[in-house]
Design goal:
Number of strands: 12
Bound molecules: NADPH dihydro-nicotinamide-adenine-dinucleotide phosphate
CATH class of the domain at 209-363: Alpha Beta
Mean pLDDT: 97
Low-confidence stretches: none
Radius of gyration: 21 Å
CATH topology of the domain at 209-363: Rossmann fold
Number of helices: 18
Shape: globular
CATH superfamily of the domain at 209-363: NAD(P)-binding Rossmann-like Domain
Distance between the termini: 30 Å
Order of helices and strands: HHHHHEEEHEHEHHEHEEHHEEHEHEHHHH
Helix content: 40-55%
Strand order of the largest sheet: 9-8-7-6-10-11-12
Largest sheet: 7 strands, mixed
Length: 449
């Protein structure tokens, strides 16, 4: 697919000129714009209000120095960011990523995607994303704490429960959220919650830890059911072994599937008897070891070096849950040849554009990240509601709401695709439905936002 409409083409080429050094951001924008043509055609008022050129430009970008001291007494410096992309429908909402690869291109792509994902949840949350090029791997607990506290010394003045509510992402889990939230609370003398993904004893929501992985499986289940299929008896490959991957493994197994492979950035394991998510959780979440340890512990499991090889493992369903652009065209080709029937994105933008084209062109059911992994942020919004009400809901209540939200996201996206003449194209459906709500809110609020 390519951008055909003259107005959208012009917006994209202006953006590309100004952001030529930001390939991930341009990839994310192009993927959205190429599906918007029928919507823009029906709504000339969007063009008159300059809506597309406004939506592709972040409302605010904050970049700052983070100075901290390592255990050896050496002063270290990293760069911190917050991209406050769009607040037309609610406070900025999106995770914080700590990874050496973090730069503006990656955070702008994530923030841009977040706008439409958050809109699709049906909840009042805008889009944002933040992070740092800090590498938590190999750091002591004290170093992590000092870094998080220093990061918050600057970030605290830009966030608030009605302004911007961050959460976790790659390299940021309950531990890091706890240190950042603690620092915010000390500085501001304010216990209104502000972060989501907190430990339950700090005001976090039950089921938030599980939400992205569970939500991914609820969405995939809807997609399969609409095609007369289910998880029952299917073989599943899940990349990554972090938060999203671990709980996707649990839920896919509970829904009757068998997860046969998982990975980390070093390599992947195959366990034909079905991967036990509790062992993965103990290895990765509790002991912070490598996935290789799974094969050392479980009889019959094999370990293979190199993370991309995971896509050569024949399976019925593939759930990429690690990172952006981890599944390229040739990997998609191999999956298709091996008979994959469904692919749903747990990570953000894990499939390259040619991989998506390959799946869609071969009749493989394809669920895009904006819709398929929206369960995490949806449950974060439920955490915000509980914090404002000073209430805590049960696991079952939160999980039930999550399931309802994921079904609704599927239905809304499928209906939008049909309404705009692209039936079955869930990428187009998610982009159109997510974009339309934000565009309408911006129209109501006049030019200047
Ligand atoms: P984690 O840090 O918990 O886990 C990331 C996992 O991916 C780790 O196992 C990591 O391995 C692995 N990984 C990283 N790079 C690669 C690679 N190139 N190949 C194979 N594995 C790799 O992060 P999350 O699970 O939270 O996030 C994963 C993805 O899901 C990200 O794209 C994130 O933006 C997205 N997401 C997360 C949400 C959440 O609620 N957490 C919500 C919505 C989306 P290693 O340990 O070797 O680095």
């Amino acid at each position: 697919m390519a951008i055909e409409d003259a107005y959208l083409k012009e917006v994209y080429s202006d953006l590309a000129k100004r952001n030529g050094d930001q390939p991930e951001f341009l990839q994310a924008v192009e993927e959205v714009l190429e599906t918007l043509e029928p919507l823009i055609g029906r709504h000339p008022e969007y063009r008159q209000a300059g809506l597309v050129e406004r939506i592709v430009e972040p409302e605010r970008i904050i970049s700052f120095r983070v100075t901290w001291m390592d255990d050896g007494g050496r002063v270290r410096v990293n760069r911190g960011y917050r991209v406050q992309f769009n607040s037309a429908i609610g406070p900025y909402k999106g995770g914080i990523r700590f990874h050496p690869s973090v730069n503006l291109s990656i955070l702008k792509f994530l923030g841009f995607e977040q706008i439409f994902k958050n809109s699709l949840t049906g909840l009042p949350i805008g889009g944002g994303k933040g992070g740092s090029d800090f590498d938590p791997k190999g750091k002591s607990d004290n170093e992590i704490m000092r870094f998080c506290q220093s990061f918050m010394i600057e970030l605290e003045r830009h966030i608030g429960p009605d302004t911007d509510v961050p959460a976790g992402d790659i390299g940021v889990s309950r531990r890091e959220v706890g240190y950042m939230y603690g620092q915010y609370r000390r500085i501001r003398n304010d216990a209104t919650g502000v972060f989501t993904g907190k430990a339950v004893v700090c005001g976090g929501s039950l089921a938030r830890t599980e939400a992205t992985g569970y939500g991914l499986c609820y969405y995939t289940d809807e997609m399969l059911k609409a095609d007369g299929k289910s998880f029952e008896g299917k073989e599943i490959v899940i990349s990554g072994s972090g938060n999203v991957a671990t709980y996707a493994c649990q839920k896919a197994t509970e829904l009757g599937g068998r997860v046969i492979a998982m990975s980390d950035s070093d390599g992947y394991v195959i366990d034909q008897n079905g991967i036990d998510y509790r062992t993965v959780k103990a290895i990765k979440e509790e002991r912070r070891e490598r996935i290789k340890a799974y094969a050392e512990r479980i009889e019959g499991a094999e370990y293979h070096e190199g993370c991309r090889g995971i896509w050569t493992v024949p399976c019925d369903i593939a759930l990429p849950c690690a990172t952006q652009n981890e599944l390229d065209g040739p990997s998609a080709e191999t999956l298709v040849k091996n008979g994959v029937i469904a692919v749903a994105e747990g990570a953000n933008m894990p499939c390259s554009p040619d991989a998506i084209a390959r799946f869609q062109g071969s009749g493989v059911l394809f669920g895009p990240a904006k819709a398929a992994n929206a369960g995490g942020v949806a449950t974060s919004a439920l955490e915000m509601s509980q914090n404002s009400q000073r209430l805590a809901w049960s696991f079952e209540e939160v999980d039930g709401r999550l399931k309802g939200i994921m079904s609704e996201i599927y239905r809304t996206s499928a209906a939008a695709a049909k309404e705009y003449g692209m039936e079955g194209n869930l990428v187009a459906g998610a982009n159109i439905a997510g974009f339309k709500k934000v565009a309408e809110a911006m129209l109501w609020q006049g030019i200047g936002l």
